[in-house]
TrEMBL record:
E.C. no: 3.1.3.16
Protein name (database record): protein-serine/threonine phosphatase
Role summary: Primarily acts as an independent SigF regulator that is sensitive to the osmosensory signal, mediating the cross talk of PknD with the SigF regulon. Possesses both phosphatase and kinase activities. The kinase domain functions as a classic anti-sigma factor-like kinase to phosphorylate the anti-anti-sigma factor domain at the canonical regulatory site, and the phosphatase domain antagonizes this activity.
Matching InterPro entries: Bact_Sigma-Reg (IPR052016), GAF (IPR003018), GAF-like_dom_sf (IPR029016), PPM-type-like_dom_sf (IPR036457), PPM-type_phosphatase-like_dom (IPR001932)
Domain PPM-type phosphatase per the UniProt entry, residue ranges: 235-447
GO MF assignments: ATP binding; kinase activity; metal ion binding; protein serine/threonine phosphatase activity
Broad class of enzyme this protein falls into: hydrolase
Species of provenance: Nonomuraea maritima
Coiled coil: none
Keywords, in A-Z order: ATP-binding, Hydrolase, Kinase, Magnesium, Manganese, Metal-binding, Nucleotide-binding, Phosphoprotein, Protein phosphatase, Transferase
Gene3D superfamilies linked to this entry: 3.30.450.40, PPM-type phosphatase domain
A Pfam family it matches: GAF
Catalysis performed (reactions): O-phospho-L-seryl-[protein] + H2O = L-seryl-[protein] + phosphate
Length: 448
């Protein structure tokens, strides 16, 4: 059964029900309780479940929340039609009845449907006004059953009291909130309308917040997929593995990047960079620098010359954030790697026998500070040697300083050789336990 279908104990209806004799203080206490329990997350489905968990059985014997389909799939406000073409999805249902599985069959969670304007639900959507039906007669029950092709709907709705409140946010109808009381229960009265409308208004705000979060995340993930390589193809003579872990759980993107760029004459340019900060702004700056790096690499420049020109590009871009970069070029025929550094942490080399060395590259200033030149360093990269390039988020954090982080990384890399995908997993898992951290990029390149 779907998690969005909540079954409550019907025995609680008598003692919990807010009826016509409910005092103002009791209603205010109910709304206060609802405010503390609704919107605990930015997940739309969870928000809807929380609302119904509050409303049933205190307000009704059964309830459901329908949200416009385009709002869920695209995060956009759809136009509110008045001709019965509003496409909505049932996000959650709750019941406190003796026959809960009839309600599950009648109103399945996840169903996408259109409520014609002659039904109370369609009227609420079309007019943006609450609709109260004290008792549904047989004709209305049959109309609901015919509209959805399920006779069980007429069976359980006929004789019920129905209250449908539109979910309004920013002047738009997000969907509707429907509450049902069975024939054996006291029907809804006009006094109930204000209470339910207030609950619907708070629900709509939470749903809209969830919509904005989901849209922001979709945008950020689309940006990330366009800026970072979806997959790196290992050039001949190299085995490559990589990991990217953004610090921002909300946006899901950051300012770190990496690249493996094959070149002529069995050469390969390796790049790892870091735009300070994280989130969409850092990612946008990163995308500009990564594109420039790929273009410059196509000119077959050595790493020092590439960084010199990239520094000029960064200066012209007027980046607000500081950026660092490490560029290496592996020459398979010579068995060597040339490296230049623009304010970045030095790479590590894991020798075939398992010892680890931090390569003594000469650090230059970060990008965009108009450096005169960057110094080129050259090292041997024998078959079986593993070059480790990374950003500072991997070795620096609140739990330890950078020297401790570098020592920890060397310890993780030292020892019997492992597959490089396994090494990536071990290193990232050890670092990701930090509660507060920066973006992390890790690039491993093994000479074959």
């Amino acid at each position: 059964m779907d998690l969005g279908f909540l079954i409550k104990d019907p025995r609680g209806r008598t003692e919990l029900r807010l009826g016509g004799a409910t005092t103002l203080e009791q209603r205010l206490a109910f709304l206060n309780d609802a405010s503390t329990r609704i919107g605990s997350t930015l997940d739309l489905a969870q928000t809807c479940r929380e609302v119904l968990d509050v409303a049933v059985p205190r307000c009704a014997d059964a309830g459901g929340i329908m949200v416009q389909e385009r709002l869920i799939t695209e995060g956009e406000f759809p136009v509110r039609p008045t001709d019965g073409t509003a496409l909505v999805r049932r996000v959650a249902t709750a019941v406190a009845v003796e026959n809960p599985f009839d309600w599950d069959r009648a109103f399945p969670v996840g169903e996408v449907a259109v409520y014609p304007p002659y039904l109370p639900q369609g009227q609420a959507m079309a007019t943006a006004r609450t609709v109260l039906v004290q008792r549904l007669d047989q004709n209305v029950g049959d109309e609901n059953a015919r509209a959805f092709g399920r006779d069980v709907i007429a069976k359980i709705l006929t004789g019920c009291s129905l209250l449908v409140a539109p979910l309004l946010a920013r002047g738009n109808v997000l969907g509707f909130f429907v509450l049902v009381r069975e024939p054996c229960s006291e029907p809804f009265r006009s006094a109930d309308v204000a209470l339910v409308e207030e609950l619907a208004a708070r629900t709509a705000i939470c749903i809209d917040n969830a919509r904005l979060y989901a849209r922001e995340r979709r945008t950020a993930l689309a940006l990330q997929s366009s800026l970072l390589p979806a997959a790196l193809t290992a050039p001949p003579g190299l085995e490559v593995a990589h990991r990217y872990l953004p610090a921002s759980d909300l946006a899901g993107v950051g300012g770190d990047w990496f690249d493996v760029i094959p070149q002529a004459r069995e050469r390969t340019t390796l790049v790892v960079g870091d735009v300070m900060g994280h989130g969409v702004r850092a990612a946008a700056a990163m995308g500009q620098l990564r594109t420039a790096t790929q273009t410059l690499a196509s000119l077959d420049l050595d790493p020092a010359e590439l960084l010199y020109r990239l520094d000029r590009v960064a200066e012209q871009l007027h980046l607000e954030q500081i950026a660092t970069c490490l560029c290496a070029r592996y020459d398979r025929a010579a068995g060597t790697v040339q490296i230049a550094c623009a304010g970045h942490l030095p790479p590590m080399l894991v020798h075939p026998h398992g010892t680890v060395e931090t390569l003594p590259v000469v650090p230059g200033p970060p990008l965009g500070i108009s450096s005169e030149r960057y110094e080129l360093c050259e090292f041997a990269l024998p078959a079986g040697g593993l070059l480790v390039l990374y950003t500072d988020g991997l070795v620096e954090g609140r739990e330890w300083d950078i020297d401790e982080g570098l020592a920890k990384l060397r310890g993780l890399l030292t020892g019997p050789p492992l597959g490089i995908e396994r090494i990536c997993d071990v290193v990232i898992r050890a670092q990701a336990t930090q509660t507060e951290r920066d973006d992390i990029a890790l690039l491993l390149v093994k000479a074959l």
